[in-house]
Amino acid sequence: xxxxxxxxxxxxxxxxxxxxxxxxxxxxxxxxxxxxxxxxxxxxxxxxxxxxxxxxxxxxxxxxxxxxxxxxxxxxxxxxxxxxxxxxxxxxxxxxxxxxxxxxxxxxxxxxxxxxxxxxxxxxxxxxxxxxxxxxxxxxxxxxxxxxxxxxxxxxxxxxxxxxxxxxxxxxxxxxxxxxxxxxxxxxxxxxxxxxxxxxxxxxxxxxxxxxxxxxxxxxxxxxxxxxxxxxxxxxxxxxxxxxxxxxxxxxxxxxxxxxxxxxxxxxxxxxxxxxxxxxxxxxxxxxxxxxxxxxxxxxxxxxxxxxxxxxxxxxxxxxxxxxxxxxxxxx
Amino acid sequence: xxxxxxxxxxxxxxxxxxxxxxxxxxxxxxxxxxxxxxxxxxxxxxxxxxxxxxxxxxxxxxxxxxxxxxxxxxxxxxxxxxxxxxxxxxxxxxxxxxxxxxxxxxxxxxxxxxxxxxxxxxxxxxxxxxxxxxxxxxxxxxxxxxxxxxxxxxxxxxxxxxxxxxxxxxxxxxxxxxxxxxxxxxxxxxxxxxxxxxxxxxxxxxxxxxxxxxxxxxxxxxxxxxxxxxxxxxxxxxxxxxxxxxxxxxxxxxxxxxxxxxxxxxxxxxxxxxxxxxxxxxxxxxxxxxxxxxxxxxxxxxxxxxxxxxxxxxxxxxxxxxxxxxxxxxxx
DNA sequence: TCAGAGAGTGTAAGCGGTTACATAATAGCT
DNA sequence: AGCTATTATGTAACCGCTTACACTCTCTGA
Lengths: 332, 332
Prior knowledge:
Oligomer: homodimer
Distance between the termini of chain A: 70 Å
CATH topology of the largest domain in chain A: Rossmann fold
Shape of chain A: elongated
Largest interface: A-B, 48 and 47 residues
């Protein structure tokens, strides 16, 4: 790999001038610029971005820490973050935190030690306190799907309580009087809030929450199957089930059919997240759409604003999910 | 951020000694090591990996270039690459190439300029020649889902012709005599090879290939719908359809139902890739599984072998897809 | 007792750039 | 032409770390 030194020698100018040409800063006489470009071309030179980063204490790269690299949810988010930043000439360093405190911390430190200009964090295990403290450092951080007091302007958040509320409400409005709920792990704050919304909707319609119609799943398809199985066997009658994500809803479909029940005639089902495959299911799954593409986009824009002072695009911080009703639900 | 210099001053030793402690190389007297560790702790010091990388010309990071960040396929692959490498203390820099030559090249150069110790490339637009040339450079590269002559030992490849062959064959073995095919874009080599396998299976069973039963889709659900629509309207009778991926199969499900046909009674459908949601569909979608998890794993191991001389795990280079028959197909 | 070996540590020259500051070249004006 | 204000370029000190090499101490064994 050629270095800037070789370029400067070939072009007959100083290191500084080459650097100026590379970075397009300061004025360089057109003729000189040409000589340098020519030399760069001849040597097939690419600046070493590590060296640039060390010297300039900037890296043009944004660290992104998400729970997992797979899954329909994160992929979309990542994809939008990347394309927006790439269009702005920045690039992303992606790491997975696996919802594990040690790993999240380790990844975070690595991203920092790599001179990331900013960080987009979608983390579960790190505490509010830790994040708040981090946000006081010199590297701008943006939080995804989280709202931490004291740094609201850096949070792209989603109102999970509202999501749980509208999911349940949309079924109640169809006349359902008894609903089951398949939730995610209770310790996850997202799960917890959705449940709260569920209860609020029930209360609003004058219905009692029945603990026996609540199943705690894992967000995986298998637990949707299992949950539906247990709910049906409980003997408590219900005409609809609200699932805390689409995978579990897919599992619920499976069990429902196995019991000879028709969707939506005998059982209305609604999911959450509205991932791509919700529309592939038959009947098409109703779901709560979380605007993950938009959230990704806004995280990217926030970074452009806070880390690079590019303040030309509107930024939405707080998102409210909305319901997509499809063939999986019906009047009772 | 504290620097190595401050640590050395606080510990009362030289920079070199601190560096030795950090990297665990050479012998350092236990007492000295303690002093250094103590100082590091006190200053809450983390080595600046950019500087480490520049000085050592190594980065402990592997560049990964894939077509897209979203989609069920790439997510799984990425996920496996990342976890294997992470277990080995390495980390990944991920970029998306968007199947566009300019972007792929640009991303590649960025990864190189970031001192990546090795590269895992899943690219479509770069030519064999370019890749072969690249592989002669000093940075080890591993190719995913591609076989380039002259660098076979660096290729993790998948036999797409065979995949197309077994997909079709599995339907023919069930007694089908007339099959339609919904393919991906013909210019993509993967699509092309699968079609070739399809034709080979037909020939083997003494069946003529009928161009009118071939639809060129885009690998997206919508084109599966559209393709099935056109195929059904063509008037040529067929009892099964082979789809070049699962998304299009999902689309085909949709259209098939709309026409009042039952799956698998009236129409057998098989997909390709065997992504997660194939099992969520009803009836469960038969598919060709590509072992993408394994391919990701092997790519990671190859990197460990070629870039870090870790040669302890077996590496499989060539993969053959296999058929997963589920409820979406039946005897005719 | 002393040379030689080995262990432990320090010195200083990079790695490939950026950038404040100094200096040289040119342009603009009287 | 002469002087100043700009503009263009060069010089050299970093950025934070690694590492070849030199050096200083023990510790052996003859």
